[in-house]
Amino acid sequence: MASRKKSTTVKKSAAIKVPDYPRIALVLQGGGALGSYQAGVVEGLDEAGIHPNWVAGISIGALNSCIIAGNAPEHRVQRLKTFWETICQPPSVAVSAMRSAFDLLGDSAQPWRDLTDGMTDRLFGSLAASRAMMEGQKGFFEPRPMAPGMGTPATISYYDTKPLIATLEKFADFDRINSGETRVSVGAVNVRTGNFVYFDNAEMKLRPEHFLASGSLPPGFPAVEIDGEFYWDGGCVSNTPLDYILSQRPHVDTLIFQVDLWSATGELPADVFQVAERIKDIQFSSRTRGVTNSIKALQELRQKLWDAIERIPVSVRKKDPWFDELAKRLFGARHNCIHLIYKNKPIEGHYKDYEFSHETMRLHWDTGLSDVQRTLENPKCLDYPPPGENFVSFDVHRHA
User: Fold this and answer.
1) What is the pLDDT of residues 173-202, one digit of tens each?
2) Cα(325)–Cα(320) distance, integer angstroms
3) Predicted TM-score (pTM) of this structure
4) Which residues contact 277 (CB under 8 A, 6 or more apart)?
5) Rounded-to-integer distance, Cα 197 and Cα 238, Å
6) What is d(CA 214, CA 155) in angstroms, rounded to the nearest whole number?
7) Distances (CA, A) of 85 to 60, 102, 208, 352, 360
8) 58 phi and psi, to 5 degrees?
9) Which residues does the chain have with pLDDT short of 50?
10) In whole angstroms, what is the distance from residue 352 CA to residue 345 CA?
């Protein structure tokens, strides 16, 4: 059984040769405390010398996007570490004391260690989640007096996220974010219209409020007012921005690292707590594998139609401008989607998205680092898709 105290041992990988993609995109799903898995993926990409030039995120993925785009590539991993260490609780005193006692007893304590590992991890995980609910998280959110309140959408919630503004300004340079050096896109939902929107530094100047809006999941967090409109967490509609990346023009060959925090597949629940966990898994996974498969099928259809047009004599096509217009619409850039999905650990429960203990943060981080290192052990997964196929995907868990 996995244990919170046993972090994944990972060997630092060397830089690898990446094909010359015009665009390297990092797509980050929402998932609260699970988001440190994405930070581990970023560390693995950094070790391999892979630096995305477009980051798109929703909810906690948006906050990670802010830190990534708000720092020079060589500083991103360290900034992500300090950001996560800031918003997570320090190691539990009781857990640390118990494990220290086991270490002093040595091998003689192994039977007790094996017996109590899972129980203590679940116990202190649930306690950490309870502390987050009661006390909030330093530098992130704090309980609202007289919650949930009333009045405007900005004041109706159980927690206040204003502390997060100062945290983002501390760890991210917004002048760098808005310089265009790295494209940044974060998704949110307009509370009044219900429309899904993206705040994109290619179209507007991004402020901390745009990132807060993307992560304002009701009723825990309040809506964020931006230019007279109120916005909630993008996960209310869709929890992954893959479609947005693929739909943007100009279409260019793109290497995509899609980092999901929820797995749609899982064990059948055996109690009400497992039911609550599976509901979250299914709801927030946003059917990403299904979306990926649908996009692949659509791209294959476009390719077939393109091939059919190519069979029409050039002399015929030149006489009718309709062919030129259709070719413009059909022109499909090649997309290589590397899919990384966080897999549930046996020690976790339905509270995993708000269990912000330092121990669990490190577990998620190390898992992300390990997963991307395992993925890059097969460097061919980074190659351009072969001729005739303009969308391919690779998932280390599915290909294992």
Assistant:
1) 999 999 999 999 999 999 999 999 999 999
2) 10
3) 0.86
4) 266, 269, 344, 348, 349, 350, 352
5) 11
6) 17
7) 15, 26, 19, 17, 11
8) -135, 135
9) 1-9
10) 10
